[in-house]
Amino acid sequence: MEEITDIEDPRVKFYRSLRYTPKSHIQAKVFVAEGEKTVVRLLKSNLRVHSIFAIKEFFELYKDLIFNKRVEKSRLLFANKELMENIVGFHLHSGIMAIGYQPEDVSLGELSNTVVGLNGINSSENVGLIVRNCRAFGINSLLVDEYSTSPFLRRAVRVSMGNVFWMNVRHSKNFTSELMALKGLGFIIIGAEIYPNAFELCKYKFPTKAVVLFGNESTGLDNRVVKICDDIIQIPIASNVDSLNVGVSVGILLYELNRQKRRRK
Fold it and tell me: Which of 181, 141, 44 has the alpha carbon at shortest distance from 100?
């Protein structure tokens, strides 16, 4: 382990000013894991770890996990919590962070039989919550369109509690084209949307192969995406409420999808 005593130390360049995701992270295809539970889950995953920056006690507590990742000694960095907060630019609850390498996107053929698709979802917190819901209800494949926030941004990783480390993720560069390709592979495209003549969730029978799409927090699914959908489903809610938060909607819908899957077994 190597101690950091200077805020300008070049060894902590990836940890500097993390209130928003730095361009250097995007260019290097790395992400930040924040907090003890999330960092430990990163260490237990198959993802590669670039570096760890934490209070000294963390290294002593998890030395076996850290050793198994074979992180270079020069990238095992510790400091006092006050200095760490000055470097990252915000308050740290636990004083434990790590940088991981973002995995390569999976191909369309590597997606599982149930896929959650994100269409224009801007909030990192919502994306993180969606990932956590996916893992909670047995979904491990995520298709992210070109207008949605990546699940590997810092706040998304934090809210997902590290569950993104076990997801098959594909960042699509042509969402509608890839949805049509998935149709060709036998997937039924299902849009979750408040829409005339939509199926009520409790009356809908999910197919074996499905892509379930969720749209922007304010405007919902893009019209071009709606036209591709084979079915539209909605969660019945009180008429005096406009809509549910997208993360809440994902949780309710995936619970029902998972319930039907378990009944078929």
Answer: 44
